[in-house]
Give the backbone structure.
Amino acid sequence: MKAKTLIFLYSIVAAVPYLAAADKVDTQVLYLSILNCLNIILLYRKHKSNSLFELKESINNIPVVSMILFFLWSSITIIPAINKVESLISLSEILTLLISLVFLIYHFKSLENLERNRLILILILVITSVELISVYAPYIAEIIVNGKPGFQLLAYRGISGNINVMSYSLLIKLPFLVYYLYEKKFSRYVLYLLIILITFAILSILQTRSAILSLALLALMLSFLFYSVNHRNRFLKVLRNIVLPILLGFFASYIQSALNSNITAQDRIGSLVVAGDGSIGERLRFYQSAFESFLASPFIGIGVGNWEIESVKYDREYMSNYIVPYHVHNDFLEILAESGIPAFLFYFGPIFLIVFLIIKKYFKKKRIRGEDLFLIVILCSFLMYLADSMFNFPQARILSQMNLLLLLSISIFYIPLKFSIPHKLLQISPFIFLPLILLSLYSSVRVYDSSRDQMILLTQFNFNDFSKPPLSEIEKMQHIYPNITPTGMSIASKKGLHFLKNNEPERAIDLFTAGLPHNPYLYMTETFLGFAYEQVQDNEKGLYYTKLAFDNAPNDVIHFGNYINSLYTTNDSIAIKNAYLDIPEKYKDPMHDELYLLVISTMQNPASSKFTLDGLD
């Protein structure tokens, strides 16, 4: 019973709420860290000095060994990292997931086969139901309040924190539901309902284009594979248990779109071939940037956890309002760019191996037994995870990672994945990993505490309201570990803005200076540091930093405004006009015009209006 409870506690990590944090991941990592420590305590209380021996079988397998190597190699990539604090935080998360995997395998191994299979069934049913409820509740509420559903509302993300994450989490569980329906493992009506609800959610509520395509591909794969391995009533059985419930979901989606005149799944897929689709061009640009970064350092990368910083260097000319492309939207490329080829092989290697072994077994056997159908389920679920990795960033989402850990844990009992670690290495491993686990717990506590502070800073920044909280509270907020927000901005600089806006430029300068190295490509810190120096009458430094920010990121209105304000103090109208003309035309907005005309009109007399307007549209 204790093993089942602990597995269940790991499995429901997605249901952990934000608890006032800026990023749900921070709360979830803390939850897993505490759960890991609880497992260690329970294991030691039960087995004392034999604890390591009890874990031996849970460690001697390819998924765990590969993840250990991924962690160790990622540790080496700290060397080239620009922001080493972010690398340490990422390493802490990797270690937390590694220990979670070990204990999941350990608890699954403690169960008998029938008991384990029954638990997997219950987990899939419960978790899928919870995810669906979290999606449908706001969807139905939207219809009740406004008479029709909105398009991809933030509320539809449910417990996942992201609609793409939720879409693929449901897709990963869909093969299990189809299998249980096909093999009559549970109530047909309940399984039919869940499959229909998943199909409808992906097509009409979440409407993620890659997930819609993946759903169609998954339906074809399941139909073909189940049809080809079962020779008794195979066509009707496939039609009734796979095709029919998914088609009913498609039909319900079509009816809903017709009644509410909403965007259909066909419209969403059709938008992929529409010329000028911004999101496709953006993704391709991200892919190119990551590939170029990988080619520059293919073996060790730029440092684990540093892509959100490195990405700014490549995408700065397209950015505005400090919206950072903090993920590549392709985990294959992101891992290659951050940590190089070895990390890519260690992370994806077990998945590729499992997929290969299942396909090999499928083609090798003339006839697969009924119980081997479960291998097809594992295959299809892993393929959905790989599809998610191709278009999104599941490595950065705890819900997606827990799906992966559960799949790896289950696979060990159906596929030969044993790999023995030398006994001497096992003996010394507690002396290495126990201190690291404690440090990881400490890290997750620090990150969560900071995340709560960041929520306040981000909220006030977004509303441009720096009147609260009191500066005494701002001063207490930590900015060293972590040192940047989920959006890539320096926390020290965010604090500095509060002091700057409340007429304390000296303290603001200290904080901006501390924030300079945290994200050297964003230039937010530089522009406000320059403005702060202007407030203390150090015009030379003020001009230096505002010019540095404008020259490297001219499309930001704030950078332009602060720079021409510095130029105004030097009465350099020519430089002000040149700065205005240097802004790329596609990034100009009315605010650039207003700032330029406002500043330069105070420097020129009416007789020189020709100079002011010459060359302007």
Summary: The longest helix spans residues 423-462. The chain is about 70% helix and 0% strand. The radius of gyration is 27 Å. The mean pLDDT is 88.
